[in-house]
DNA sequence: TCGTTTGTTCGATAAAAATGGAACTAAGCC
DNA sequence: GGCTTAGTTCCATTTTTATCGAACAAACGA
């Protein structure tokens, strides 16, 4: 369990489990957080990822995503910046995030994972 | 919702959701069921996939896997034969099952999803 | 028809998760 | 120091899941 500076604890890459990742992604808000982060070039703070829900509720969701190793959070001033742990996830479960996010070799493919209506 | 002969109801391919699939796979027994089915050439009955747990408990897990569209079940005599809905899952979420099962282009890759120790 | 096998359904209980207000902490600004 | 902003932690409540015995149902064979 790596403890970043004075910050959050994120699980080591080797300990990431499919089970925890799936649990983390089985909640609609958490899935939206992941999708929003994937779509964003830059890290995003918690407020921007709260979808109008109470802070305490969202803080709970961030914690679960962090604990599953999906998210990485660092403090920058008053805010907490979140990003996907994409490289670690890709090494540990190659193709998983790509499939979830609807990134396939074929640009026309993966309609469902991109939120588009199926052909 | 397709209702097979006199049998089980399985969701239509178009309605499969990542969220439901993730929830289904976030339980250890359910994940093992999926992995066992993937490893098996032939469909398997419920007893062979029960890992020594009570029937009523496992029946519950089968129902969730079916409702998520992960599993397909048919009656054959007294037994219920289960198989992965691999084709439907692959069409709807290309690469997802391959990543979960640790099937990658490179035979040496995806150690974690195949249950092997990471290099 | 009776008994056996396989699995589902019911129902009660226990365990786990989600929710959100309130109090609190850390960082920055005046 | 006092004030503001951004999140976390605490705590109680609700909701959802999991667990598993017991009763039930369907298919088959003797």
UniProtKB/TrEMBL annotation, chains A, B:
Query: Which InterPro entries has this protein been placed in?
Result: ArsR-like_HTH, HTH_ArsR_DNA-bd_dom, HTH_MetalResp_TranReg, WH-like_DNA-bd_sf, WH_DNA-bd_sf
Q: Which PROSITE patterns match?
A: HTH_ARSR_2
Q: Which residues form the HTH arsR-type domain?
A: 10-108
Record keywords? DNA-binding, Transcription, Transcription regulation
Q: What SUPFAM superfamilies does this protein map onto?
A: Winged helix' DNA-binding domain
The molecular function terms of the Gene Ontology recorded here are:
DNA binding; DNA-binding transcription factor activity
The molecule here is called Helix-turn-helix transcriptional regulator
Q: Which organism is it from?
A: Gluconacetobacter takamatsuzukensis
